[in-house]
Specification:
The protein contains four helices and two strands, in the order αββααα. It is mostly helical and about 120 residues long. The chain has a two-stranded antiparallel ribbon. The chain starts with a helix and ends in a 12-residue tail after the last helix.
């Protein structure tokens, strides 16, 4: 289910946004988004690709019953949330201003339906 959520967000991002928000160390990793996505999986979480990927990794933890994979998955999740918060969020605020600020206030960063707590 996690991978399906990720793929759904990629399709919506490319179809509606015509690009992606990913930028690392001021280097564009994907074409910049032209329109802010707030539909599809983006109405549930601001980072559906990350949520779907992490959900998939944690399902593998359960499947393999691996403490090592649990630790790696937790480290990946924490690193990516910090990365997203410090890079993508800043760029989206710059590019979409008030529209993104309003979206950010009502939509969770990571966990769908979390009432913007995480």
């Amino acid at each position: 289910m996690g991978l399906l959520f990720s793929f759904w967000s990629i399709v919506v991002q490319n179809k509606i946004g015509k690009g992606g928000p990913l930028e690392g160390y001021k280097i564009g990793i994907s074409p910049k988004t032209h329109k802010l996505n707030t539909t599809g999986p983006y109405k549930f979480t601001r980072n559906p690709m990350l949520f779907g990927t992490c959900t998939y990794y944690f399902s593998l933890v359960l499947f393999f019953n691996s403490p090592v994979f649990l630790l790696l998955s937790l480290m990946f999740t924490i690193f990516m949330i910090i990365f997203v918060k410090n890079t993508e969020e800043k760029r989206l605020l710059t590019d979409f201003g008030k529209e993104y600020e309003n979206y950010r206030k009502k939509t969770s960063l990571f966990i769908p339906w979390a009432q913007n707590r995480f």
